[in-house]
Amino acid sequence: MPTIPSQMALVTGATSGIGYELARLFAQDGINLALVARRQPELEAVKADFERQYGIRVSCLAADLSAPGQAAAVYRQCQEQGWQLDYLVNNAGFGSYKDVVQEDAALYEDMLTLNVLAVTTLTTLVARDMVRRRTGRILNVGSTSAFQPVPHMAVYGASKSYIMNFTEALHAELRGTGVTATVLSPGVTATNFLARADMGGWSQAQGKLPTATAVAKAGYRAMQQGELNVVTGLKNKLLALGISLVPFRKLKLAMATRFMREGT
To answer: Does residue 156 have an active-site annotation?
Structure first.
């Protein structure tokens, strides 16, 4: 029997896409996992696979983090189990490719609860514990949509701007504590996010897209090194740099509007 290590990572949105690939990287490094997702059967399937392949301990926390109070409830479960969280990955999130006036306001409430409030709550609670122990790594999954306003994905883009600014500010606050916070900013990636957001017809979602595996590896490496913000892919890096150098907000908006409308 392999020795079960003491380190543990909490990963949200862990049963598919980037979250699954990040969880797999932890498993490959022999780090125990607490996995959070909405569906228990999918969690149990990942648990069985990872425990068989990597000889680690995997715990399943079925929770809908888009519901108020669920992020705090997940943290309480970890406390009740006596788990020391050495890593926190806030990956769960979703978007919608519609104009604001065409979308259901209730969906936006769920989106902001998941993309913003759950991330803030888990980060705040777990970071306090990490600072007390003088060690820990936090990775929040953002998006290149954070660098400018995003017409047709206005609420999603705004939520990721929050994540980027929140995480970067936290990174500065944590200096000297032994704890780091990193934001991963991928562009369009080949995951089921595109289908859920109804983005299948968008031109930027066509052709060969970066894989969740490649994005996860970049984020995992940046987190372990305590980096501030990692943008994945050369094209995305150039776009993020270019938009950051544009001096006028109206010009940024005009560029983003053209990009988001292209091919739709």
So the answer is: yes
